[in-house]
Amino acid sequence: MPAPTITLRRLTTENFGLLAGWLARPHVYRWWHHEFSPEAVDRDFGPSARGEEPNEDFLALLSEEIGTRPIGLIQRSFWHDYPEYVEEIAHFLTIPKDAVTVDYLIGEIADTGRGLGPAMIRAVLADTWATLPRAECVIVPVALGNRASWRALEKAGFTRIAEGDLVPDNPIDPPEHVVYRLDRP
């Protein structure tokens, strides 16, 4: 079976209803633990969609025989644009000056377990290397219990480089995280 074809498109405010629906799905809410009211989605994703923040939010679009459809969200930013996160991880890992991080979700449960996570990650990596020339590497922390997420990183070519405690997105989780890295080819 051929690898899934994923393209990226910037998230816009018109996509907030779709995103709110995804954030409410139990398999997404479990790990993102994010409010999904219209007000919360606008508060948390609006600044990026309007270009008021340095991070980027993308819809991951899957090309199929019948057309293209959104399957997930990918967030990307330079670590040092958010010093509070660099400081939080500093007790066990030094983040290089030009390191990028990503976060991702697959919106519908029916799309999980199909190899789309690694394909989404590879798509954002290709875009990162093409559009962010100063990006030297991508470093991604993941809750240790979120095996599907860190396995997707491994399948996309990342290597585990560290383990340590970080505040979890979901308060029911312990603080243990694993950290993965991929250097610019």
Portion in beta strands: 25-35%
With strands numbered from the N-terminus, the spatial order across the biggest sheet is 1-2-3-4-5-7-6
Number of helices: 6
Overall geometry comes to globular
Structural class assignment: alpha+beta
Query: What is the residue-averaged pLDDT?
Result: 96
Order of helices and strands: EHHHEEHEHEHEE
Profile the largest sheet.
Answer: 7 strands, mixed
- At the fourth level of CATH, the homologous superfamily is Gcn5-related N-acetyltransferase (GNAT)
Kindly give the count of domains. Answer: 1
N-C termini distance: 26 Å
- The CATH topology label is Aminopeptidase
Secondary structure tally: strands: 7
Question: Architecture, according to CATH?
Answer: 3-Layer(aba) Sandwich
Gyration radius, in Å: 16 Å
Poorly predicted runs: none
- Percent helix, as a range, is 25-40%
